[in-house]
Write a structure and sequence with these properties.
The complex is a heterodimer of chains A (462) and B (536).
Chain A lengths: L1 H20 L19 H4 L9 E4 L6 E7 L8 E3 L6 E3 L1 H7 L3 E19 L2 E18 H9 L9 E3 L4 E17 L4 E27 L6 E12 L18 H4 L3 E12 L4 E15 L3 E13 L2 E2 H6 L2 H15 L2 E4 L3 E4 L3 E9 L4 E12 L2 E15 L2 E10 L2 E13 L2 E7 L3 H4 L6 E12 L13
Antiparallel strand pairs in A: 1-5, 1-23, 2-5, 2-23, 3-4, 5-6, 6-8, 7-9, 8-9, 9-10, 9-11, 10-13, 11-12, 12-16, 12-17, 13-15, 17-18, 18-19, 19-20, 20-21, 21-22, 22-23
Chain B lengths: L1 H19 L13 E2 L2 E12 H5 L7 E5 L4 E14 H4 L5 E8 L14 E11 L6 E18 L4 E13 L2 E9 L7 E8 L4 E3 L9 E11 L10 E19 L10 E4 L10 E4 L3 E8 L5 E12 L4 E4 L6 E4 L9 E7 L17 E10 L9 E4 L3 E11 L1 E5 L1 E8 L9 E12 L3 E10 L5 E4 L5 E4 L3 E2 L5 E3 L1 E9 L1 H6 L5 E10 L8 E2 L5 E12 L1 E2 L1
Antiparallel strand pairs in B: 1-36, 2-35, 3-4, 4-23, 5-13, 6-12, 7-10, 7-11, 7-13, 8-9, 8-11, 8-12, 13-22, 14-21, 15-24, 16-20, 16-23, 17-18, 17-19, 17-21, 24-34, 25-33, 26-32, 26-35, 27-28, 27-29, 27-33, 30-31
Classes of the chains: A mainly beta (462), B mainly beta (536).
């Protein structure tokens, strides 16, 4: 459970880094999609499998993957270089100009606790336990516009829309059973069934807020409503909760039970061309413990300032008290503890590779994800080289999260039964963080036994 | 193919370094920046009706004088005279002494006297009630103390009776008995409570203020001698006399009204200007529970502007206000005295110089025609009240009507991060009145630091009226009051704010008459827009 604590710490550090530094990290693991010779590629397409007969991931040394992204802006969007002395001036307005109406701050961590895989003839069986954390903060451009330039400029006479703004967090442990079969020389298929035990959740089910500033009178009209489900959060603020509450207990008690499937297939069109597709995390979790659902009813309140007529007859304290009571009334929330169900962040890959040589192939991958009914896509072109049986590397170029020019790279190398791998979807996130909207890093060790090297078919290339 | 692979690898590495050879981000190069938010917020709003604007201090200042049209008037009231009964009638203490010698007592000298002898005498009392002539009094309080002393060495019985001073219809009577015990002189006393006693002070309708007592003294012999030189002294003391009610004649008294004033709150903060009303009225109301008539003689009626000393005298007014007597004890006579444009010559213009006060001088006399029947009456609760109402119907015109007030100001917050501040006034006016305003910020010596406008600026535009002077179209006006950064920084030295406004009725300078009705309103909104400059 140490991994869980690591995740929580990492969450805060990452959010802080994103807002302070404007850095952007992201993890989609589409680089891994090209590293087929690692056992972990099976997680991104169940139709993929390692060459070795047996693969084992040892707790602590297994795969760890962290990533985050901010689609709104990167660090360089926050600064302007002064021509006279090349110093950097903070320019929030510039960051604003880069934002879309709706922007995403996402975080994902993937910590493999234990994994085991075995190949039996044309079948491959796997079992894995993984700690997963997905978090996203969806914010609107108007939210930042309000904070940066106030409501007296471009928002004057307009409705500052915070529709859709919200936090979503999904922390759970998955227990996965995988099966892969080589149907024929061309077609491989695979499936992973995952039983999930939810740890904590924040689910912004509905969030529609706005503030309209009257252009003439500056009257402020607040509108909106919200429903936010939470699970496993309440004990942290509820004074009646027991002090010894440990969210990590939910990692294995299945009180918040979930079920999910990964599906995948790969097909060799020709000797050189292979296409593949996978659908990941198609499933749900039903949240039942330590739930709190907050519901803010439809708000439509216009603030016109202090009502002077009352001010002239009552004391200042009485007027302010009534204003406070009114605001409390308007923005009151109801709390309930009903059970609720959330879907996972479902994603799917579509990919194709073409073998230019026996050691080098190029590929194109389309990565797709759905965050709270928002569809996002990444397009990746890659090149993968297998220099030696024990060494392979891949490099890719991707466009994701309105970030142009992300370059991903990955390498796996093996010494004896130990395979080390490291991959990033955006290596520029480490080299030039100011220009990146996402950062991602995956790394780990596998133990491979039984013909771990994929034979290179030299015959085809003479 | 291996050659191709190598080339591709070299190309990939070259591309990688090209990408990564971009200029590094230098955190140490981050210089100062600034956050320049601009916030616009509503500060206050109000909907002012006629009561809020014209009678904010006291809603009873405003009355609807015509419920059908909603026409209104300002009515300023003043209590100008209250006379209580205690001022008019005060019955003084009355003390008398009576000495009866042996002859008066029918006591014939004898060496030994064992017999009994009785004598009857009278004592007259004259009460002092100032100028009042008492005929009949019912006492609320009063004491009668009687002390009898003698050097006769015999038993004495002294019976004192007041035939015209009765309690429950029975004459007040008291007995003082002296029982000889071997020593002379001997004395004793008696006391009578006069509560609810009714006295007739006319001695049978022949006079006033007088009362008689009958004194019967019986001497019962003890065997001691009567020398013929003995006597009896009787002392009478009426004290603490207060009446419940009284009849008589209470005199022709000057009840002493020197003068008083009514504050015209409409003009309280006004300094200059011209004000003309179509049909003002001044009414005096009297409530009299005294049983005698009262006359009020006006000598002076005027308005006074205490700012410039201007006085405008009312002329051509009737000067006598006769206030009739109440019909009986417990009743009230109501009467009023009207001054209007028909019985005066210049009433509509005496308010033209925005006066602060309406001032009157008069004297009040009771029984102005002297002592004529019927008899006066008075009770302990009798009172006469005179109050006045100055009624200003809101129909007329005004211009140059200047309102001025100075308020304390103390703002010591750090405002250096404000680049500019704008106050926005949104006024939707349903009154046919224009208001030009100027706000001046003053230092602690009342010297101007800066003003919001170069010249007074119209912040309220007048609503338009029809041919009858009634509003038929509201007018909106937006006024921005901008404070520059320099002015904002000067606010820390501001100690007072001088608010100055000049009001004018619609086209008032050209004689346009407007009317105010009870459904007129003015919508007010104040917004604030702040441009900040916060160095990061």
């Amino acid at each position: 459970m140490k991994n869980l604590d690591l995740n929580i710490n990492f969450l805060w550090i990452t959010i802080l880094a994103l807002f302070i530094g404007g850095n952007a990290i992201a993890q989609r693991n589409y680089t891994f999609y090209a590293l087929e010779n690692t056992a972990q590629s099976h997680y991104f397409n169940p139709a993929f499998k390692p060459s070795a007969k047996v693969s084992v991931s040892i707790p602590g040394l297994s795969m760890h993957s962290f990533g985050a992204s901010n689609s709104g802006f990167n660090l360089s969007n926050l600064f302007n270089e002064r021509p006279q002395d090349d110093s950097l001036q903070i320019d929030p307005q510039k960051a604003l100009s880069k934002m879309k109406d709706k922007n995403f701050l996402t975080l994902e961590s993937y910590n493999e606790i234990f994994a085991f895989g075995i190949k039996v003839n044309k079948n491959y069986f796997s079992f894995g336990i993984t700690n997963r954390l997905n978090a996203s903060f969806i914010y609107t451009k108007d939210l930042f516009t309000l904070a940066i330039e106030g409501n007296g400029k471009s928002l004057l006479g307009e409705r500052a829309s915070f529709d859709g703004t919200g936090i979503n967090l999904n922390s759970y442990v998955e227990y996965a059973l995988g099966f892969n079969r080589e149907i024929n020389d061309k077609l491989d298929v695979g499936v992973r069934m995952k039983i999930l035990s939810g740890i904590a959740n924040v689910n912004t089910r509905k969030s529609e807020f706005g503030i309209h500033t009257n252009k003439t009178t500056f009257d402020l009209t607040f509108d909106g409503s919200a429903i936010i489900n939470t699970s496993g959060i309440k004990p942290f603020y509820d004074t009646l909760a027991t002090d010894d509450y440990m969210p990590s207990d939910n990692a294995y008690n299945f009180k918040n039970f979930g079920l999910a499937f990964d599906l995948g297939a790969s097909y060799k069109l020709t000797d050189k061309i292979k296409v593949s597709a996978s659908l990941l995390d198609l499933g749900f979790i039903t949240w039942k413990t330590e739930n709190a659902t907050f519901e803010i009813d439809e708000i439509n309140y216009r603030f016109e300032g202090v009502y002077l007529n009352q001010f002239l007859t009552d004391s200042t304290e009485a007027v302010l008290q009534q204003l406070q009571d009114t605001l409390k009334d308007v923005f009151s929330q109801e709390e309930s503890s009903e059970n609720y169900r959330t879907g996972l962040a479902t994603r799917f890959y579509l990919g194709g590779t073409y073998e230019l040589t026996e050691k080098f192939k190029v590929g194109a991958t389309l990565y797709n994800e759905i965050i709270k009914s928002n569809y996002r896509v990444a397009a990746i072109v890659s090149g993968t080289i297998q220099l030696k049986n024990w060494l392979s590397a891949t490099i890719n170029y991707s466009q994701y999260a309105r970030s142009f020019g992300s370059i991903g790279a990955g390498v796996s190398l093996r010494g004896g039964p130990i395979q080390f791998f490291v991959a990033s979807d955006n290596i520029l996130g480490f080299i030039a963080p100011q220009n990146s909207k996402n950062v991602h890093l995956s790394f780990g060790l596998n133990l491979l036994f039984g013909k771990p090297d994929k034979p290179i078919n030299k015959k085809r290339y003479g | 193919m291996q050659h191709l692979t190598s080339k591709l690898l070299i190309a990939a590495i070259t591309c990688f370094f090209l990408f990564t050879s971009c200029k590094k981000f230098g955190f140490d190069k981050i210089a100062e920046g600034s956050w320049n938010p601009n916030f616009a917020v509503p500060v206050a709003h109000a909907n002012f009706g006629v009561y809020d604007i014209l009678a904010s201090q006291d809603s009873s200042d405003l009355v609807v004088i015509d419920p059908n049209t909603g026409a209104i008037a300002l009515v300023y009231k003043g209590e100008i005279l209250t006379i209580d009964a205690g001022v008019l009638l005060n019955i003084q203490d009355e003390n008398e002494s009576l000495n009866l010698d042996a002859t008066d007592l029918n006591a014939i000298p004898a060496p030994i006297f064992n017999g009994s002898v009785t004598s009857n005498n009278n004592q007259n009392f004259v009460f002092d009630a100032g100028t009042s002539e008492l005929h009949q009094v019912t006492f609320k309080s009063g004491n009668l103390d009687i002390n009898v002393s003698t050097d006769l060495a015999h038993d004495i019985t002294c019976v004192i009776t007041f035939p015209e001073l009765k309690k429950n219809g029975i004459p007040v009577s008291t007995t003082v008995s002296l029982n000889y015990s071997g020593n002379v002189p001997q004395s004793d006393n008696a006391s009578v409570d006069l509560l609810e006693a009714i006295g007739d002070f006319t001695l049978g309708n022949t006079t006033f203020n007088q009362l008689d007592a009958e004194i019967s003294i019986t001497i019962n012999g003890t065997g001691q001698p009567i020398t013929g030189t003995e006597d009896i002294d009787i002392e009478f003391a009426f004290s603490n006399l207060d009446f419940k009610n009284a009849k008589g004649y209470f005199g022709q008294n000057n009840l002493g009204i020197s003068g008083d004033s009514v504050l015209l709150r409409l003009f309280q903060n006004a300094n200059n200007g011209y004000f003309e009303l179509i049909d003002p009225k001044i009414t005096f109301f009297a409530e009299n529970t005294f049983g005698f008539p009262i006359r009020m003689n006006f000598s002076n009626l005027k308005t006074v502007n205490v700012n410039n000393g201007n006085e405008i005298f009312l002329s051509g007014f009737p000067s006598v206000f006769d206030i009739p007597s109440a019909t009986s004890i417990g009743q009230t006579s109501f009467s009023q005295f009207d001054l209007n444009t028909t019985n005066t010559t210049n009433l509509s213009t005496i308010v033209s110089s925005v006066p602060k006060f309406f001032v009157y001088t008069a004297n009040v006399v009771s029984n102005p025609d002297g002592n004529i029947p019927p008899l006066n009456f008075i009770s302990e609760k009798s009172q006469m009240k005179i109050r006045t109402e100055v009624e200003l119907p809101m129909e007329g015109l005004a211009y140059g009507f200047e309102l001025r007030d100075t308020v304390d100001f103390n703002f010591n917050e750090d405002l250096s991060q404000l680049e500019s501040v704008m106050f926005r006034l949104n006024i939707d006016n349903g009154f046919p009145v224009e208001l030009k305003s100027q706000i001046t910020f003053l230092d602690d010596n009342y010297n101007p630091i800066f003003s919001t406008f170069n010249t007074p600026e119209s912040v309220v535009s007048p609503a338009l009226v029809d041919n009858n002077g009634r509003v038929n179209q509201r007018i909106k006006k937006i006024t921005d009051i901008n404070l520059t950064q320099d002015q904002i920084l000067l606010l820390s030295g501001v100690k007072y704010v001088l608010l100055n406004a000049v009001a004018q009725t619609l086209d008032g300078t050209n004689g346009q008459v407007i009317k105010l009705f009870d459904d007129y309103t003015l919508d007010f909104k104040l917004g604030l827009q702040v441009q900040g400059k916060i160095n990061l």
